[in-house]
Design brief:
Elements (H helix, E strand, L loop, with lengths): L5 E6 L2 H11 L6 E5 L4 E3 L3 E6 L3 H14 L2 E8 L4 E6 L5 E6 L14 E8 L2 H10 L4 E5 L3 E4 L6 E7 H8 L5 E3 L3 E6 L3 E2 L5 E4 H4 L3
Parallel strand pairs: 1-2, 4-7, 8-11, 13-15
Antiparallel strand pairs: 1-13, 3-12, 4-8, 5-6, 6-7, 9-10, 10-11, 14-15
Organism: Streptomyces violascens
Protein name: Glyoxalase
Length: about 210
């Protein structure tokens, strides 16, 4: 069964990026870094989301990311569904931190409940069918708007969003060209999905 063991981000400065991610989110081996100058402009077609248990944790992680050098995109705000904020890492990746809780139940921590990779897709039905064929089980599905797969044995969940809707949720323009600058680890054999996102076998990713 395909599951996500880690995501690899192409970054211009691996040392600086490692310093940022350690200080901001502390995700360890779930986020790997590879020095590369892959050409890319604008929205790269994906976002990375961290869900936490309470608003204080959202503020804590967003503040840590900003202190480490992230650029604010959406400040932490309260909405009908909870709290959330969006930042862009120095390497260009977009991160959202959110919670469905309305009130704090304890002191702020860096504890993360779920790590979700959201891919922006052009044809939801085709992408959903493709990933089901790769062995992923659908956990949630809202027609042509959103699909979330069960994490399986991996620590990272995969979700699909229409590209324009994903960009809107992140607070950026949907326009973008060039490489995704993202590689997903966890496939039995390497493959590329209908939107050009590359998967590699876990054994290959461990060498990145």
């Amino acid at each position: 069964m395909t599951s996500i063991e880690s995501v690899t981000l192409d970054v211009a400065d691996r040392t600086a990026a490692d310093r940022f991610y350690s200080a901001a989110f502390g995700l360890g081996s779930q986020v790997r870094l590879r020095a590369a100058q892959a050409p890319s402009t604008g929205f790269r077609g994906f976002t990375l989301a961290l869900t936490v248990s309470q608003p204080a944790n959202v503020h804590h992680l967003i503040d840590a990311a900003l202190a480490a050098g992230a650029t604010p995109i959406k400040p932490v705000t309260k909405s009908l569904w909870g709290y959330g904020g969006v930042v862009q890492a120095p390497d260009g990746a977009i991160w959202k931190v959110a919670t469905s809780a309305k009130k704090d139940t304890g002191p702020a921590t860096r504890e993360i409940d779920d790590f979700i990779l959201l891919l922006g897709v052009e044809d939801m039905a085709a992408s959903k069918k493709f990933y089901v064929a790769q062995g992923l089980a659908v956990a949630k599905s809202f027609g042509s708007k959103y699909v979330e797969f069960a994490a399986g044995t991996g620590p990272v969940k995969l979700a699909l969003y229409k590209r324009r809707a994903l960009a809107k949720d992140a607070g950026v323009s949907p326009d973008g060209t060039g490489a995704h600058r993202l590689t997903i680890a966890g496939a039995t054999t390497p493959f590329t999905d209908p939107d050009g996102f590359a998967w590699e076998a876990t054994s290959m990713a461990s060498m990145a």
